[in-house]
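Input record (one chain):
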Amino acid sequence: MKMHPYLRAFLAGAFVPTLVLPVLLTVFIIVRLVLQCQVPIERGMVFPMALVPSIFGLWNMLWLKSHGTTHMPLGLHGALLPLIGAPVGASVASLLGVLALEPSGVRWFDVLHVPYALVACVFCAAMAGYYLVWKYVVGFVNRTLEIA
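The corresponding structure, as predicted from the sequence alone:
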């Protein structure tokens, strides 16, 4: 099974968000329809749901391509993704009016205010989560598809 390693790398990378995003959609439906939350969450969900699986797949392809020269562990490579994704996502969210950067913190949907200290803690937790997901889950799928 040595043919098409980049296609297999793309599929291995896209595997995790493809499984997680329907769970997030279910949570959104419960929050929006059952709990009657009036925050327009769907404005901030549709765009990431369309792009995240492809980004994960392309990131895994980049790891496969660069691993021969950099020898970077997969978990560390995955933990670097939020360093690129968070600023790009925040920029897009600001342009779409979902996110507003204020002097004391971030305001989402003109309803929820989050201080920058909490944003930094969540960002660090996201990097740790990405490290674990990439090291164990994506790494397992890479080994299963014989690309690692």
